[in-house]
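Proteins fold. Shown next:

***
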Amino acid sequence: MQASDTIRVWDPLVRVFHWGTVALFATTYLIEEPMIVHAWAGYGILALLAMRLVWGFVGTRHARFSDFVRPPSQVFAYLRDALAGRSQRHIGHNPAGGAMALLLMALLLAIGFTGLVVYGVDKASGPLAGLLAGSPEWVEDVFEELHELLANFTLLCVFAHVAGVIFSSRQHGENLVRSMLNGRKRGGQGGQ
């Protein structure tokens, strides 16, 4: 496929968000000590999320939430059609991919918030430290458990996301990983 056969879909900011989040989530998941590395990687994810949330309203066409947020009925219809081998190809996110993107962003925000609470109570550090000073020990215990549970569930969702990317790539004959690296996808031919 030549560059003239492709169209630009994913702008640089979307790609930096995607791959930066991949790297930082892997860092936070695998490195708990030293805590400073874990914490700063978490701050990095929150910064990327803030950038992506703004870009979801003012960014390029396929970066905007209005381009890929669909009601549950459309997501389930797309999944049904995909499993039957008749799903429509989409230039941007397909309805299932859009739903997964939203779920992952929400989970990362929740992980970030619970991490800030744990960091504030346990280490008396971070932006919530002053607010949480003198909190009972159970606060740290509850938020630490929730933080870990959310991180593990997010990892499960990441595996589901990767499986969906592989499935969709095969079904529509395109390399979606490459398109998230170079920003380009095959044009025309039934894409929305």
In short: The chain has a mean pLDDT of 94. The first helix runs from residue 12 to 30. The chain is about 70% helix and 5% strand.
